[in-house]
């Protein structure tokens, strides 16, 4: 057989074999090459909130690890759904991802009757990063220091309650407390936690439920007074702040769960690679210490565990949304 025939046969054999390369092997090859351009981390809330704080802690370290620029872009609107929708529409191979309160995103399908995407079908889990319990706090001029006192005060005078958008995780946590205690307050929605905190500090609103990570610095500075945290037991970081559960709402627990999700087009190998780097970064001593000092705990979940958690939160909060008859278009 001459050399030209051997080359033709070799080429034909290669063409026959290539399609039979296992999908996992092709995915692994793609992951080795990823990323090939800058990575965008979409934070669907204004600057200064829990997701933004974590995103800006992670981004420079992730950039160094991946050898590509990693940028944090704030895309607030529609309780985080605007930014989430942008990530869904990007539909790329892991170069655009979402960093958000995963619990809040799980609530959206129950609250929004015309949501343009289904988070369970159009987004995939990458990694859980951190958990921060909600803190119930008031403006220092409010004459209440316990949950019982704020409930009684709400029945005597108007209290404006700042929440990070109607249907957000802090809003539903406040609704659950309201249902359990009979409190009466007027909800004032914002586009993000940082704006809600600012107005409560300024006295435009008197009560707030928000992630401890973004709120604790203002409590320490005396600009807000903590009433309770929504954790099952007191935190060593703030041992003087009692829990909501110990003040009469048995078993109550809620919080902001910061995680990264991507379009469903992101393959398993790329998701695993990104998840591994994110888990390593949030567990770096200096990052972990900074988060802990501000009231957040590092909680890592892999892609599959994150989606299991997401679907569980979707079912959990759907019951609260139904009982409170909350609907948005």
From TrEMBL:
<dbReference type="Pfam" id="PF03401">
    <property type="entry name" value="TctC"/>
</dbReference>
<dbReference type="InterPro" id="IPR042100">
    <property type="entry name" value="Bug_dom1"/>
</dbReference>
<keyword id="KW-0732">Signal</keyword>
<feature type="signal peptide">
    <location>
        <begin position="1"/>
        <end position="27"/>
    </location>
</feature>
<comment type="similarity">
    <text>Belongs to the UPF0065 (bug) family.</text>
</comment>
<dbReference type="InterPro" id="IPR005064">
    <property type="entry name" value="BUG"/>
</dbReference>
<protein>
    <submittedName>
        <fullName>ABC transporter substrate-binding protein</fullName>
    </submittedName>
</protein>
């Amino acid at each position: 057989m001459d050399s030209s025939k051997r080359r033709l046969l070799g080429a034909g054999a290669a063409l026959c074999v290539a399609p039979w390369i296992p999908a996992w092997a092709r995915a692994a090859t793609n992951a080795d090459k990823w990323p090939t351009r800058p990575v965008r981390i979409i934070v669907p809330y204004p600057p200064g909130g829990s997701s933004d704080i974590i995103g800006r802690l992670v981004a420079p370290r992730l950039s160094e690890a991946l050898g590509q620029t990693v940028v944090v872009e704030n895309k607030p609107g529609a309780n985080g759904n605007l930014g989430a929708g942008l990530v869904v529409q990007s539909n790329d191979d892991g170069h655009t991802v979402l960093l958000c309160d995963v619990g809040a995103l799980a609530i959206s399908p129950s609250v929004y009757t015309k949501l343009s995407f289904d988070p369970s079908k159009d987004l995939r889990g990458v990694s859980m990063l951190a958990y921060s319990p909600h803190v119930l706090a008031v403006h220092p001029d409010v004459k209440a220091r316990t949950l019982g006192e704020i409930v009684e005060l709400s029945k005597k005078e108007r209290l404006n309650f700042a929440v990070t958008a109607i249907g957000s995780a802090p809003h539903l946590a406040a609704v659950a407390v309201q249902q359990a205690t009979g409190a009466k307050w007027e909800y004032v929605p914002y586009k993000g936690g940082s704006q809600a905190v600012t107005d409560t500090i300024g006295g435009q609103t008197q009560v707030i439920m928000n992630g401890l990570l973004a709120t604790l610095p203002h409590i320490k500075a005396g600009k807000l007074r903590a009433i309770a945290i929504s954790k099952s037991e007191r935190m060593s970081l703030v041992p003087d702040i009692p829990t909501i559960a110990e003040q009469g709402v048995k078993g109550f627990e809620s919080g902001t769960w910061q995680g990264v999700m991507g379009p469903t087009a992101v393959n398993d190998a790329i998701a695993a690679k990104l998840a591994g780097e994110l888990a390593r970064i949030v567990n770096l001593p200096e990052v972990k210490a900074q988060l802990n000092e501000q009231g957040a705990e590092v909680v890592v979940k892999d892609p599959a565990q994150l989606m299991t958690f997401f679907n569980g939160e979707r079912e959990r909060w759907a019951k609260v949304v139904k009982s409170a008859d909350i609907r948005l278009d």
